[in-house]
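Bench log, entry 3. Co-assembly request; chain sequences pasted below exactly as received.
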Amino acid sequence: NAGVTQTPKFRILKIGQSMTLQCTQDMNHNYMYWYRQDPGMGLKLIYYSVGAGITDKGEVPNGYNVSRSTTEDFPLRLELAAPSQTSVYFCASSYSAGATGQFFGPGTRLTVL
Amino acid sequence: GNSVTQMEGPVTLSEEAFLTINCTYTATGYPSLFWYVQYPGEGLQLLLKATKADDKGSNKGFEATYRKETTSFHLEKGSVQVSDSAVYFCALSGQGAQKLVFGQGTRLTINP
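Structure output for the full assembly:
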């Protein structure tokens, strides 16, 4: 049981490049989330999904896109990378909303130069 | 809207000291409350939770009690170890809400 897995662990992008951060969970959770964590800061929600085919914006969605074609996968797409997107990105999942808490992946550290 | 305010860090203690990290919240209704821990280079792990007033969450020697009258969920541990060094996040999930709201995190360092 791997939980929430993320790839890659590290990536360096040039300004204007694009990439997809992968997230997969094997717990059959309906809810999935993408956060970014800037140095010394808390987590900010980028996008979330309540089930396959359903996504919604969080606090900081600009510059990102998501899709949810299966229960297991929730990729995050960065188009036209900018230095402001340098951050650590965490994917999380939960069985339901509210009281169950979320399970987090190990994170992807992204640097945009 | 819902919000969480945590004790400012960083916090530095000696091994076997008593730990308190304060957390207060603003929310309507009856939110669920959580403490997460983030060890260096890792993702967040759920440490404990409480889903109704007066509930006490506990795990690995840590405890927190859901106090509705003071809108607080302070994290405590009686005797900390070097291995407890990490960043601790308080969070809430509003009643019926789909998202967590996180505090800014408190960095804890325990010296031997």
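DSSP finds no helices and twelve strands in chain B. Chain B has a mean pLDDT of 93.
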